[in-house]
């Protein structure tokens, strides 16, 4: 057997093995992507009261979505600091237990915040959960300051997972 014939055979074997490896790698299963259900609207307005006047303290607007696998949810929210003395805070509870919190101020003032003064922040995130997500609760907090008194203000909302 000639030397070129042996090299050709080894090169052909090498190409066959390389092709098999790449073909096998391309056929491996890719992880399934979450399929989200319908967006559930979020609109929470914080108000402070003093001396017969109402002050807008903060507003939380956006949507909550749940995935069909019951282990992931998505938040697309804007935290609007209107007249809160401190940054507003969002707490996320899953199945009644604390899971995550946010306090954002990025300087961007979207239309959803209603104009005016104050800072806001955006939360656009997919959040995995170790168990089955039955529901989530959002609690939005700010601090109303009226002259010499600071009063915490909070409101919450509950969102049920439509997939279970």
Q: Any overview of this molecule?
A:
It is elongated and about 85 Å long. It has 164 residues and is mainly β. A hairpin with a 2-residue loop joins strand 7 and strand 8. The chain has a four-stranded antiparallel sheet with strand order 1-2-3-6, with no helix packed on it. A four-stranded antiparallel sheet has the order 5-4-7-8, with no helix packed on it.
Structural shape:
elongated
| Oligomer category | single chain
Number of E strands? 8
Low-pLDDT stretches are 14-18, 20-31
Distance between the termini: 70 Å
Helix and strand sequence: HEEEEEEEE
Q: Please outline the major beta sheet.
A: 4 strands, antiparallel
Strand content: over 45%
Helix and strand composition category: mainly beta
Cα gyration radius (Å): 27 Å
Number of DSSP helices?
A: 1
Strand order of the largest sheet: 1-2-3-6
* Mean of pLDDT: 82
What share of the residues lie within helices?
A: 10-25%
Give a topology summary.
Layout: H1 3-26, E1 40-50, E2 53-66, E3 72-81, E4 89-94, E5 97-102, E6 120-128, E7 135-146, E8 149-160
């Amino acid at each position: 057997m000639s030397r070129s014939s042996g090299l050709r055979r080894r090169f052909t074997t090498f190409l066959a093995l390389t092709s098999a490896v790449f073909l096998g790698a391309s056929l491996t299963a890719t992880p399934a992507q979450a399929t989200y259900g319908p967006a559930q609207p979020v609109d929470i307005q914080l108000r402070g009261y003093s001396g017969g006047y109402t002050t807008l303290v903060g507003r939380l607007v956006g949507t909550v979505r749940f995935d069909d696998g019951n282990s992931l949810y998505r938040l697309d929210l804007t935290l609007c600091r209107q007249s809160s003395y401190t940054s507003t805070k969002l707490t996320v509870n899953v199945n009644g237990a604390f899971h995550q919190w946010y306090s954002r101020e990025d300087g961007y003032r979207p239309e959803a915040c209603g104009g005016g003064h104050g800072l806001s922040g955006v939360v656009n995130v997919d959040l995995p959960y170790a168990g089955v997500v039955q529901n989530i609760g959002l609690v939005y907090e700010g601090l109303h300051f009226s002259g010499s008194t600071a009063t915490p203000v909070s409101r919450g909302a509950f969102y049920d997972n439509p997939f279970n």
